[in-house]
Fold this protein.
Amino acid sequence: MNGTPVEGRTPLRVAVLQSNYLPWKGYFDIVHDVDLFVFYDDVQFTKNDWRNRNKIKTAQGTAWLTVPVGDSHSRNIDEVRIPDASWQRKHWQTLLQTYGKAPHFARYREYLEWVYLGQRWESLSELNQSLIRHIATEFLGCRTRFARSSDFGSQGAKQDRLLDLLARTGATWYLSGPAARSYIEPERFAQAGIELAWKDYGGYPEYPQRFPPFEHGVMVLDLLFHCGPDAPEFIWGWRGR
């Protein structure tokens, strides 16, 4: 997707999303489509959401991998601490048992051993952002720049805050996930001189996934373990066929 330049301004394609734990391929599809990806982590943490958990595909179906972060509701995502490190080895063992025989598991093993066995993660944002940046740039070849929303000092609430953040980044084009259609007002983006685009998650091709039937909505590691360096073809490359 290419943003339409706004007269007198340098074109800048931007996306703003909360950081998730090992997101699915659609998240990285958005990362790939923009020049600047902003982690929106100075906003309310939502429990039982994608922030601290995601799905894997097992012989018994899908299963959750969850990072334990306590029960407090009154905190922003970038304030969420991880009080216990025991989950790290458990997640590594689950990935090893589930995907150890996948064709490309060995390609990513050293990095994941560093993540789960070589580090002590105390902040959920730091964990998520580190994983997303590395996977996007090193494994999927994205050239996107990354930033944190807290770096811009945006003001207001809800849509006002988002528009203020986009203005501070210099965005001329904003890519949103489809779920935001329920609350985003397109006319306000037009008034701000920002072209609004919507991501379409439809049409992703299936890949050779163990344990059929095929499931799209699992963490991106599932795709990497099965397809290795061909993974981008199943996220965005197929559109150019």
